[in-house]
Design a protein that fits this description.
With 276 residues, this protein is mainly α. Helices cover 85% and strands 0% of the residues. The chain has 13 helices and no strands.
Length: 276
């Protein structure tokens, strides 16, 4: 434990001064504090991830024509796109861990912000490094059913804890579901990113992807991922819109657009999972 704390402390000493030198970040860090900066980055990364998820579902829709999917995937094997896939780990793990920090703060009364931010930064760096190493090796193998069964069992733990803590509160049902889906995604999305880079064929060859998706249990997991991530992301966008749009008609219009987009992509995703 002491070794882990020492590593995290060194990462903190390396990361925070560099963040403090960033023009916009430095101003808000001095005037509003690091928790505000972290919250702002959390929202920015959330928007970025919603855009990626929509693009990801669109790309997977080409599985209905396997040859076309394989042709598209060749394009994404260029070094630049592989690099972008690796960099995607930064918003994924940061958003997931900071979301868990917020849940611990608002639902469990854990208010040690300094400690949590240090752990957030340390674990995020470790995850990104580990994923990069995994991608460079690219020769691991694991049974998809075993991997996702293990991940699902682990994901049930935070879902159960969060649901038990917030379900009987007076908060709106939509808010509760946003936190519950966040608890599920905390484990499943970083795991999904790791799984997709176990070996190059897992996410880039239509026959391998289709074979995996045809397993009944994995179909269920994939549907849970699609519904959870689109609901969680859509609710987050609605919250941002309410904070920055003062006009009620604009808020209503924005909510309608977000709901429509998320519903359409949920339909595309679920239809693909059930028919591929």
């Amino acid at each position: 434990m002491a070794i882990t704390d020492s590593v995290i402390k060194r990462l903190e000493m390396w990361i925070l001064p560099r963040l403090a030198q960033t023009p916009v970040v430095s101003i808000y860090a001095e005037t509003r504090g690091w928790p505000f900066v972290i919250a702002w980055i959390h929202r920015f990364f959330g928007i970025l991830l919603v855009i990626y998820v929509l693009f990801h579902i669109y790309t997977l829709s080409f599985l209905e024509t396997p040859a076309l999917f394989d042709h598209k995937m060749k394009f994404f094997r260029f070094f630049l796109f592989v690099l972008l896939e690796w960099l995607l780990a930064i918003p994924v793990i940061f958003h997931a861990l900071n979301g868990s920090r917020l849940v611990l703060y608002e639902s469990f009364g854990f208010r040690k912000d300094g400690l949590m931010i240090r752990r957030l930064l340390g674990i995020s760096v470790a995850y990104v490094f580990f994923l990069g190493l995994w991608m460079l090796l690219g020769n691991q193998t694991v049974t998809p059913l075993f991997f996702w069964l293990t991940v699902s069992i682990i994901a049930v733990i935070p879902v159960y804890l969060v649901t038990g803590k917030i379900w009987k509160t007076g908060m709106p049902v939509g808010w509760k579901l946003q936190r519950i889906t966040g608890a599920f995604l905390l484990i499943s999305i970083p795991a999904h990113l790791l799984f997709m880079h176990l070996q190059p064929s897992i996410g880039h060859e239509s026959d391998v992807v289709i074979q995996r998706m045809q397993n009944t249990f994995i179909r269920f997991v994939d549907m849970a991922l699609v519904v959870s991530v689109l609901y969680h992301g859509g609710y987050g966008l609605l919250a941002i819109a309410k904070d920055y749009l003062e006009s009620k008609p604009l808020q209503t219009a924005c909510a309608a657009i977000i709901s429509l987009v998320m519903t359409v992509f949920a339909w595309i995703g679920i239809r693909l999972i059930l028919t591929v």
